[in-house]
Amino acid sequence: MKQYTNPSSAYKEARIRTAGQGQLIVMLYDEAIKQIDMALLALDAQTKKLDAIHNPLTKAQTVITELMVSLDFDKGGEVAKNLFNLYMFFNRQLMEGNVRKDASPVRIVRNFLAQIRESWVQIANTRVQPAASTPGVNIAG
Asked: pTM of the entire structure?
C-alpha cells in the first residue's frame, strides 16, 4: 500500500480507482481541457517562456492519444471511427498551434472537447437498465 504525503494525490488515485468507465473518460476530457486552458493563458499573455505553451499542449496531446487507444472499434462501430478521426484532427491542430504559437487552432480543439465532454457527462450519468427479457443469473438472492 502506498504512503501518501500529499492528501490530494491520495484523493485523486482513489477517485480514479472507483470511477466507472464513463467517468474515467470525462476525467480524461477534463485533463485535456485543463492543459489546453493553461496553454491558452500563456499564448494570450504572449509569454516568452515557450515551455509554458509547449508542455501543456503536449500533455493534452498525450491525453487525446489515450482517448484514441481506449476506443473499441468492434463495439463502437461508426462512432468509434468518427471519434478516432476527431482525435487525429485534435492532435494535428494542437501540434499546429504549438509549432506556430497560434491560439486559434488550440481554441477550436478546446471548444470541441468541451462539447464532447458534455455528451460524455450525460452518458456517464445515465444508468443502463437491463432489458426485462435478458436472461441471466440473479446474484442478489
From this structure: 0.77
* Domains and their CATH numbers in the chain: 20-123 (1.20.120.340)
C-alpha distances in angstroms, 4 versus 7, 11, 15, 17, 107?
A: 6, 10, 15, 16, 36
φ, ψ at 63 (rounded to 5°): -65, -45
Cell for 122? 450525460
pLDDT in tens, the chain (141 residues): 556 677 665 555 555 555 577 889 999 999 999 999 999 999 999 988 999 999 999 999 999 999 999 999 999 999 999 999 999 999 999 999 999 999 999 999 999 999 999 999 998 888 655 555 455 554 454
| Residue-wise burial string across 96-127, b where 16 or more C-beta atoms lie within 10 A, e elsewhere | ebbeebebebbebbbeebeebbeebbeebeee
Please give the grid coordinates belonging to residue 131.
432489458
